[in-house]
Design brief:
The chain is α+β, with helices and mostly antiparallel strands and 121 residues long. The protein has 2 helices and 5 strands. Helix content is 45%, strand content 23%. Strand 2 and strand 3 form a beta hairpin. The relative contact order is 0.15.
Length: 121
């Protein structure tokens, strides 16, 4: 099975939805971290208890699954790092978005990963 490939235009067209889902992940991630700490240290949390924690985990799972369903690779989640498989100048690349980036403006050769990250031409 070949991996889906995006054109730059296709990846950029998905970015508004990516940014919305990424913002939700960041909020849920923080809530879950705080809830977990509170429950472990104080036994109680203003965020809720075990059921709320399970709900946060379930929603995070749904959001992460959405990325995979689109063919987007989630490479890290704290910070959130995603790659769109693509081709640039005949080479296999990943269009790369890192939490905090205002837009999709980076890429790296597929075999290099984040260390080879460059701005899109």
């Amino acid at each position: 099975m070949t991996e889906p490939e995006f054109t730059l235009a296709e990846a950029q067209a998905l970015m508004p939805e990516v940014l919305d889902k990424a913002a939700e992940i960041v909020q849920l991630r923080a809530d879950l971290a705080e809830l977990t700490l509170d429950l472990r240290t104080a036994g109680t949390s203003a965020i809720g208890g075990l059921p709320e924690g399970k709900a946060l985990e379930a929603r995070l799972g749904e959001l992460m699954e959405w990325f995979g369903d689109q063919g987007i690779e989630v490479k890290g989640w704290a910070p959130l790092l995603i790659d769109f498989p693509a081709e640039l100048d005949g080479r296999s690349v990943r269009l790369c978005w890192l939490e905090g980036d205002p837009e999709l403006a980076w890429y790296h050769l597929s075999e290099l990963g984040f260390a080879g990250r460059r701005q899109l031409p």
